[in-house]
């Protein structure tokens, strides 16, 4: 009996060792080396794919892994993915701000303290801007569950694979609520924009917006936010961030063109790429741009240069809503410059009326 027990014990030990071998192999393969502040750390539970909005995506060079009990992964890959509705703002790899609808998460490189909707929270693991050693890729590596839930998204882990989906759409006002519009007078402050024929673009754009404001001020169907109503200096980020933060229905930027003294005409820029962004009221950037171009052209009486696809313009690229940028005429053309200065009130009224007519067509107002 004693001998039997001994043999049985030996057998069990052997069995355990044999059964551990494949696990040990798997463990070695599932490690990932991360370089942060010149220090290399090895982490377990590496997973080279992720599910984003139900779609499997390979992330061989920037896998997810387990860090201090949290699954972490590349923020840009996850939150910039199509349909997530997240605005991604990296400031010098020091802070990362993600905005989605009325949710905002501000992370600091290497800190477990984060700001969620303006309140401080402490996470189990710090978001880091670090390098994947084997691929050399540098990424913001963030706790996926904390960030996703803070942004009102769905998070799940199935067989070690992280699944993130947008879930509920960002909070949008009902069709009976006011139309939220962001009106952006181009340039301002130290940035004069174009100049020509004794005029500055920043002054002309503000005049058009100021004229439009007189009408919007009296119309309770609209809630209008102005990026500036004076001569302030603003970054492009300031402009689209305002629009995203107030969850605007539409964004309209006002500019004056400049090229040759012989250049003529009115044109409206938009982004073809973002044409299908119709989270609110089923409006596309193309439709908005078309309506605004029509109104602006009628007001200026200049040549109709039509619509121009400019997907890389920040205010058209990073705005979450249909957006367009109107170039009324050429400051470099003396005739157009004089005509524009003489007709600012008309341009402002036309802008207002174009928005009203467009929103009626779209059924957003009566
Ligand atoms: Zn401009």
Annotated CATH topology of the largest domain: Aminopeptidase
Which strands sit side by side, in order, in the main sheet?
A: 2-1-12-13-6-5
What portion of residues is helical? Answer: 25-40%
Q: Tell me the span between the first and last alpha carbons.
A: 93 Å
Strand content: 25-35%
Number of distinct helices:
9
CATH architecture of the largest domain: 3-Layer(aba) Sandwich
Hetero groups: zinc ion
Tally of discrete structural domains: 2
Low-confidence stretches: 22-27, 169-175
Q: Tell me, what's the shape? A: elongated
- CATH top level assignment of the largest domain: Alpha Beta
Q: Quick one: how many beta strands? A: 23
Q: Give the CATH superfamily of the largest domain.
A: Zn-dependent exopeptidases
Radius of gyration: 27 Å
Structural class, judged by helices and strands? alpha+beta
Biggest sheet overview: 6 strands, antiparallel
Mean pLDDT across the residues is 88
């Amino acid at each position: 009996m004693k001998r039997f027990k001994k043999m049985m014990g030996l057998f069990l030990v052997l069995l355990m060792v044999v059964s551990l071998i494949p696990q040990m192999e798997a463990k070695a393969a599932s490690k990932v080396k991360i370089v942060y502040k010149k220090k290399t750390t090895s982490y377990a539970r590496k997973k080279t794919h992720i599910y984003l909005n139900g779609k499997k995506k390979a992330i061989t060079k920037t896998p997810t892994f387990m860090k201090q009990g949290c699954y972490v992964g590349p923020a840009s890959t996850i939150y910039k993915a199509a349909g997530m509705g997240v605005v991604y703002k990296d400031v010098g790899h020091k802070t990362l701000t993600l905005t989605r609808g009325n949710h905002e998460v501000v992370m600091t490189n290497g800190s477990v303290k984060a700001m969620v909707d303006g309140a401080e929270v402490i996470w189990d693991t710090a978001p880091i801007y670090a390098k994947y050693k084997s691929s050399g890729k540098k990424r913001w590596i963030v706790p996926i569950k904390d960030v996703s839930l803070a942004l009102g998204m769905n998070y799940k882990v199935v067989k070690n694979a992280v699944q993130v989906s947008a879930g509920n759409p960002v909070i949008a006002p009902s069709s009976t609520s006011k139309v939220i519009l962001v009106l952006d007078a181009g340039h301002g402050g130290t940035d004069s924009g174009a100049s020509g024929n004794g005029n500055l673009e920043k002054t002309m754009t503000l005049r058009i917006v100021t004229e439009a404001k007189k009408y919007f001020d009296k119309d309770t169907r609209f809630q209008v936010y102005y990026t500036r109503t004076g001569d302030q200096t603003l970054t492009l980020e300031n402009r689209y961030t305002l629009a995203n933060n107030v969850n605007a229905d539409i964004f309209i930027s006002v500019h004056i063109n400049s090229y040759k003294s012989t250049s003529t005409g009115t044109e409206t820029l938009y982004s073809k790429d973002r044409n299908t962004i119709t989270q609110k009221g089923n409006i596309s950037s193309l439709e908005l741009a078309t309506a605004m171009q029509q109104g602006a052209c009628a007001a200026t009486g200049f040549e109709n240069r039509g619509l121009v696809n400019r997907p890389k313009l920040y205010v058209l690229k990073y705005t979450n809503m249909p957006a367009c940028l109107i170039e009324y005429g050429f400051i470099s053309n003396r005739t157009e410059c004089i005509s524009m200065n003489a007709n600012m009130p008309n341009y402002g009224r036309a802008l207002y009326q174009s928005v009203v007519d467009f929103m009626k067509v779209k059924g957003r107002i009566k």
